[in-house]
Design brief:
Strand content of chain A: under 5%
CATH architecture of chain B: Up-down Bundle
Helix content of chain B: 55-70%
Largest interface: B-C, 91 and 91 residues
Radius of gyration of chain A: 23 Å
Number of domains of chain B: 1
Number of domains of chain A: 2
Radius of gyration of chain B: 23 Å
Shape of chain B: globular
Distance between the termini of chain A: 42 Å
Oligomer: heterotrimer
CATH topology of chain B: Cytochrome C Oxidase, Chain A
Number of strands of chain B: 0
CATH superfamily of chain B: Cytochrome c oxidase-like, subunit I domain
Number of strands of chain A: 0
Strand content of chain B: under 5%
Number of helices of chain A: 5
Chains: A mainly alpha, B mainly alpha, C alpha+beta
Largest sheet of chain B: none
Structural class of chain B: mainly alpha
């Protein structure tokens, strides 16, 4: 128990939170299985425990600590207005309708989706590049 | 036009709010039609098919196109302000979430234009009734696709909230100095992340059954009808906490301001919120007690356990008011209404959590009364508290106190008349989802009372809309902190400038604006 | 002055919400009704305490119009002893309610195979939109579609064992006077037992949404003395 506590004590709140969630879900899932032998609920609970466990373990291993960043630093890096999300959203909605109406909406939806995704990714890459440049200059 | 290309969390919040409210009005009109039908025995307004479509769409719209997006709306507007940052971590993803929600909602509603009309399977869509053999129209397929899209929207939004709250808090704001509303948003986001996939999976499986020859839920082909219920309620029960926790958060922001005291037991409140969120994953099959297919005692005890942290919150709110200096502008009135009326919803939830009692009450108007008790006098009352409270921040104007009171009172009386008699209707045997009832059942009088109440609710909404319209006609005139409030959003202008803050006060508690105000008073030497 | 009026009005209105059950007609229903009384009593106590405290605080602590209105009150952040108290007391309360629940659940849900040999055994098939009742031992079947629905007779004071199955979608067998319902699920047989204590006619309804005429598939269960029940059986053959 003390080992356990020492393992996670230094972790930030979010890591501990996910690890706690995972432990809870796995324990309850095990209890539920033993009480009921009902497969659907047991799988759901254990999967929940596994998913949160993965998140907790990854956060723990990467040792992420939230650095205090001055909030004004971010002003320049915020995405400006763009119709890309609207295009991607409309594209996805149209393409989803193909499951009911056949291939036509898939083709129609592909156009705004592709354009929007392309624009979005292009901007994101430009922002990441300029951020890397700034980090380099700051040393 | 800039509304179509915005990535600003404040604008996205307002887009969500306006859309969700439009859906609310539509869902409300459907409710009024249902109440009109039920006022008198016999079918006057519609037929059985039409009625089945009405309660399906009413439930779907209210739960998934109104309540869930409304909490996303307020969270979107407030969380970056409350944590002291300029926007969410993923602003474009934030915009995508909104558009997916809107298009999903439109697709659900497009059932009205389809042959055979919209879905008529209940908002819970149980198979085999929702399978193709029994529900033959495209409306059901559109319902499935639309809800899958809104579900993805919620998941993406939850991701954004989680990351923003964890990584963008202003210097000095530890997790235990996070404003309560943001805490509830965080827990809600976790719930969304892990419960919505169960719904999306179930919807995908149903669509595969209906259109692609699968047999997941078809017992005659080796499938299992109960499997859907497990998947749906594994989502569905966390869902009801998703639509109440942020609203508990609103109460926890408003009451301290008008009691002029801090929230009593902030840490306990945070712990209670986390526990409610976590436990909400263990109770789902209390919706399935009558199926004979689940371990009833397990789910009964887990359901009872959730009552404890919820009760703690009630005591925290009352203790906040205790020995305070209370004033009662409209936001505080809504909080009081919540405290008085939501209590019964909580209590009847315990009743329903006892399987033998549930055998009597399940699928009757007792459950309808309970769910509206917690959703209307809970979620919606808290929503109005929040809207009246934050309207100056969002729009730079204050809503009329006079109209606010009229709105409030019409809703207190309207809610009471509409829903409290439904407990009796259910106890005496009236089932839910019934288009009509026999004239000799003895249910007519209570149904008429309920319908009369619903008209008052409609009137109240019109008063609210009038108040908003009148307020928006005046020029903005509100200072940053018109109420004398506590958290960081009240440091920014009303409405906030594009990147929210030019400066921040020191953050040493969960009430940085309160602290700053009192430091200023002390400095000036004014007693 | 608004606040206290809300408080008083709310307190009055709140008392009206308690719901009355129909008179229980079976042994199991009486157990359920007793359990409900216990829950109602607990609910009344909880409501009285919570609403009493809320009302008192609203009336007693509203800001006056005196000069002290500008001073903030004592900024109490919490009180650990109080918080423990209002965690433990509710926990104990619900533990007790859960205990009562388990006792009642045992009484209601038990299906005794020995008892199943006595009284009557009925197989119920629900379908869109009606019911078929089969008495396998007596070799009779009663069926009905929509209104008025089939009427079946059972002997008073004897255990009745019911087996539920569905021909199509999920339905639910619900008799309000029995304070009881059980879902009828395709692919799954649900079994329950009950003993009617009072002769009479008890209306039943479908209680799980099953499509178009969900609201129009009633049935009736009539409990008669053993001789009258036998006579009815004979008439059905």
């Amino acid at each position: 128990m003390r080992l356990l506590r020492r393992l996670v004590f230094g972790d930030p709140a979010e890591t501990r939170f996910f690890l706690f969630l995972s432990a809870f879900a796995l324990v309850i899932g095990a209890i539920y299985w033993l009480v009921s032998y009902e497969p659907a609920g047991s799988v759901l609970l254990l999967a929940f425990g596994a998913a949160t466990g993965v998140m907790g373990v990854v956060l723990h291993r990467t040792g992420r600590r939230g650095a205090d960043r001055p909030f004004l630093d971010e002003t320049g890096r915020f995405p400006s207005e763009t119709p890309a999300p609207l295009a991607v959203g409309a594209g996805i909605a149209l393409m989803a309708l193909a499951t009911i109406f056949g291939p036509a909406p898939l083709v129609v939806g592909l156009l705004p989706f592709a354009w929007g995704a392309w624009t979005w990714l292009g901007r994101a890459r430009a922002e990441l590049d300029s951020q890397a440049l700034d980090d380099e200059q700051r040393g | 036009m800039t509304w179509l290309t915005t990535t600003d969390h404040k604008r996205i919040g307002i887009l969500y709010l306006v859309s969700a409210f439009a859906f609310f009005l539509l869902g409300g009109v459907i409710a009024l039609l249902m109440r009109t039908e039920l006022a008198v025995p016999g079918l006057q307004v519609t037929d059985e098919h039409g009625y089945n479509q009405m309660f399906t769409m009413h439930g779907t719209i209210m739960m998934l196109l109104f309540a869930t997006p409304t909490s996303a709306a307020l969270a979107n507007f407030l969380v970056p302000l409350q944590v002291g940052t300029a926007d969410m971590v993923f602003p474009r993803l934030n915009a995508l979430s909104f558009w997916l929600f809107l298009f999903g909602g439109i697709i659900v509603l497009s059932g009205y234009a389809a042959a055979g009309g919209p879905a008529d399977i209940g908002w819970t869509g149980y198979p085999p009734n929702s399978e193709l053999a029994y529900s033959t129209t495209t409306g059901t397929d559109l319902w499935i696709i639309g809800l899958a899209l809104t579900g993805v929207a919620s998941i993406l939004g939850a991701l954004n909230f989680t990351v923003t709250i964890y990584t963008r808090r202003a210097p000095g704001m530890s997790m235990l100095r996070l404003p309560i509303f943001s805490w509830t948003v965080l827990v809600t986001a976790i719930l969304i992340l892990f419960s919505f996939p169960a719904l999306t999976s179930a919807l995908a499986m149903l669509l595969l059954d209906r259109r692609f020859g699968a047999t997941f839920f078809l017992p005659s082909e080796g499938g299992d009808a109960i499997l859907w219920q497990h998947l749906f309620w594994f989502f569905g029960h966390p869902e009801v906490y998703i639509v109440i926790l942020p609203f508990f958060g609103i109460l926890s922001e408003v009451i301290p301001v008008f009691a002029r005291k801090p929230l009593f037991g902030y840490r306990a409140f945070v712990l209670a919120t986390i526990l409610i969120g976590v436990y909400s994953f263990t109770v789902w099959a209390h919706h399935m007690f009558t199926t004979g297919a689940v371990a009833n005692p397990f789910f009964s005890i887990t359901t009872f356990v959730i009552a404890v942290p919820t009760g703690i919150k009630f005591f925290n709110w009352i203790a906040t008011m205790w020995r305070g200096r209370l004033s009662f502008p409209t936001p505080m009135l809504w909080c009081l209404g919540f405290l008085y009326l939501f209590l019964f919803g909580g209590i009847t939830g315990i009743v329903l959590g006892s399987p033998p009692l549930d055998y009597a009450f399940h699928d009757t108007y007792f459950v309808v009364a309970h769910m509206h008790n917690v959703l209307v006098s809970g979620t919606v009352f808290a929503l109005f508290a929040g809207l009246y409270f934050w309207f100056p921040k969002m729009a730079g104007r204050r809503l009329s106190e006079r109209l606010g009171r009229i709105h409030f009172w019409s809703w207190v009386v309207g809610f009471t008349l509409t829903f409290l008699p439904q407990y009796q209707l259910g106890a005496s045997g009236m089932p839910r989802r019934y288009a009509d009832y026999p004239a000799d059942a003895g249910w007519t009088a209570l149904n008429q009372l309920s319908t009369a109440g619903s008209l008052l609710l409609g009137v109240g909404v019109l008063v609210f809309l009038a108040a908003v319209a009148l307020a928006l006609r005046r020029p903005p005139d509100q200072p940053p902190d018109p109420w004398g409030a506590n958290s960081l959003e009240w440091w920014a202008d009303s409405p906030p400038s594009h990147h929210n803050f030019r400066s921040l006060p020191p953050i040493r508690s969960e009430r940085p604006v309160f602290d700053a105000r009192h430091a200023a008073v002390l400095e000036e030497g004014t007693p | 002055m608004r606040g206290p009026r809300v408080a008083a009005g709310g307190a009055l209105v709140s008392l009206a919400a308690a719901a009355c059950l129909p008179a229980p007609a079976t042994t199991e229903a009486r157990a359920i009704a007793s359990l409900y009384t216990i829950f109602l009593a607990a609910a009344a106590v909880v409501a009285a305490i919570v609403l009493g405290l809320a009302t008192w605080s609203v009336i007693r602590y509203r800001a006056g119009r005196t000069a002290d209105a500008d001073d903030p009150p004592a900024q109490t952040h919490g009180n650990t002893r109080l918080e423990i108290l209002w965690t433990v007391v509710p926990a104990v309360t619900i533990a007790a309610l859960f205990g009562f629940t388990l006792v009642t659940l045992a009484r209601v849900d038990t299906v005794d195979p020995v008892e199943a040999g006595r009284g009557a055994e009925i197989e119920v098939t629900a379908f869109r939109w009606g019911w078929t009742f089969t008495y396998p031992a007596e070799g009779i079947t009663v069926s009905g579609f929509q209104e008025p629905g089939p009427e079946v007779v059972v002997p008073v004071g004897e255990p009745i064992t019911v087996r539920l199955d569905s021909a199509d979608v999920v339905h639910s067998f619900y008799v309000p006077r029995f304070l009881f319902k059980r879902d009828v699920v395709p692919g799954r047989e649900n079994i329950f037992q009950f003993t009617v204590e009072e002769a009479g006619s008890y209306g039943g309804q479908c209680a799980e949404f099953c499509g178009l005429y969900h609201s129009r598939m009633p049935f009736t269960v009539r409990a008669e003395s053993r001789p009258d029940y036998e006579a009815w059986l004979a008439a059905q053959r």
